Amino acid sequence: MHKSKINCWQFKRCGRQPGGSKAAEFGVCPAFIETRTHTINGGVNGGRACWAIAGTLCAGKVQGTFALKIGDCTACSFYVLVTLEESTTYVTGREILALLTSTNPSDSVRDDICD
């Protein structure tokens, strides 16, 4: 049986999932609704790729672009957990950004682990 992996909104308990305690104030988290990153690092939508998705919440504040937030993200306990759990199959921020900025939304990165 395949063990379900925890997503960022579950780990951080940010409340930005639909119906969550912070969704009305900050909006539903982009990581929760970003379908192009579904299954990356074993997550649901952007749930295990949040460091590459603009507009996620960190320390009670909505974060900006990847370039502005990645320094904080790499020190995050959830980011560290994902990199350790995924080990050699970890999909990097650069790979995720390539997917998010590709001209063809159906393009995928690392097809070998994204099924």
Molecular structure report:
- The protein has six helices and two strands; from the N terminus they run αααββααα.
- With 115 residues, the chain is mainly alpha-helical.
- It has one domain (8-101).
- A two-stranded antiparallel ribbon has the order 1-2.
- It is globular and about 35 Å long.
- The protein starts with 7 loop residues before the first helix and ends in a 14-residue tail after the last helix.
- Total strand segments: 2
β-strand amount = under 5%
Q: Helix/strand-derived class?
A: mainly alpha
Terminus-to-terminus distance: 16 Å
Largest sheet: 2 strands, antiparallel
Chain-averaged pLDDT: 84
Shape descriptor: globular
Task: Identify the strand order in the major beta sheet.
Answer: 1-2
Tally of helical segments: 6
Number of domain units: 1
Radius of gyration: 13 Å
Unreliable spans: 106-115
Portion of residues in helices? 25-40%
In N-to-C order, the SSE pattern is: HHHEEHHH
